[in-house]
Amino acid sequence: MGGVSRQGPPLLTQREGAIWLAAQVASRKVFATGKLGTSETEALWFYLTMRTGETKYPYVSDIKKNMTVNAGLFPAKDQTIDEAIDEWANQMIAAVLPELDGVAEWNTLNPLQEGEILNHFSSKSKRFPARSLEPYYEAEQATRWTFRIPDRVKVAVVTPFALSATAQLGKQSALWPTVPVWNPACPLIPIKAHYSPYLSPDATWPESILEGGWKFAVRAVAEAVVASGAKVAIVGVGALSLPIAVALKKRGVAAIHTGGATQILCGIKGRRWLTHSVISTFFNPSWIEPLDMEVPSNRTLVEGGCYW
Asked: Using one digit for the tens of pLDDT, what is the confidence trace for 114-136?
């Protein structure tokens, strides 16, 4: 942090965070946890410092691009992008961040901004490193929270890669032969999330959801998870993830925002991890690349196509 002391609640170690997560799911607690992405942190900081005073400065182009293309936010038909980001930011600070039971601190680019936001709006949450959310980093099976989900508890996997994840169902032992991450007695239920129209105009949310904007997408996903009978959900839907997680918590479903790790947990490769010092070592012939129908047309706009 450039010599500036960290403020806020105690920061658990990676293992302590993993143990906390494992305890939550093992005891069937209903909770919500996750992390703020870089794009989301930048947008929230701009909103708090530049949009809530007497003068509302327009969002800079990078923030608008990152939130709509990279992070999946999209306005309703009667909104501008600036209005949609305002609406999202206001909901985040008023109704989402305060409901998080745990949150990862991980932002190396803007750690002070991340810390300020979390300390003000998620002050009661447990804090831990981002790797606590990713069970394959734990050496012991007992601290891999995905393995501690009780038998026969249905687990929803909320992701744009739902069809690819479906193709991987039943392969857990082949995908993870040396580092088992899933309790084999827990059914996995892929739940389809869609891409922003700014990322994939030809394969995006249904028109009824596009009309209402990102909040309609959050509601639709939460309803699909509840209808599936799942009591635990892992979520990887960009800026919609934490609102989805909190919506699920309010409906009795434990929700963990796992971000890009969602596809890794399902045995789906992405360019970001092909040379990763740890994750690339898990890849074997049972792993797949995302199915063609789940590759957005504008994928190269997101860090050169890092997820595909």
From this structure: 999 999 999 999 999 999 999 99
Are 289 and 274 in contact, with CB atoms under 8 Å apart?
A: no
pTM: 0.96
In Å, the largest CA–CA distance within the chain is 58
At 156-171, the pLDDT tens digits run 999 999 999 999 999 9
CA distance 26 to 24: 6
- In which residue are the tokens 């509302």 written? 56
Pairwise CA distance, residues 11 & 126, whole Å: 8
> What backbone torsions phi and psi does residue 280 show, to the nearest 5 degrees?
-60, -25
CA gap 71, 187 in Å, rounded: 28
Q: Tell me the sheet residues that pair with 77.
A: none
CA distances from 115 to 48, 94, 217, 245 (A): 14, 17, 28, 21
**Rounded to an integer, what distance in angstroms lies between the CA atom of residue 77 and that of residue 239?**
19
Distance in angstroms (rounded) separating the CA atoms of residues 3 and 72:
34
The strand pairing partners of 35, in sequence order, are: 104
Tokens representing 14 are: 């990676």
- Half-sphere exposure (Cβ direction) of 293: Cα atoms closer than 13 Å: 6
The identity of residue 280, as a single letter, is S
> Rounded CA gap, 138 and 132, in Å?
8
Contacts of 23 (CB under 8 A, 6+ apart): 29, 148
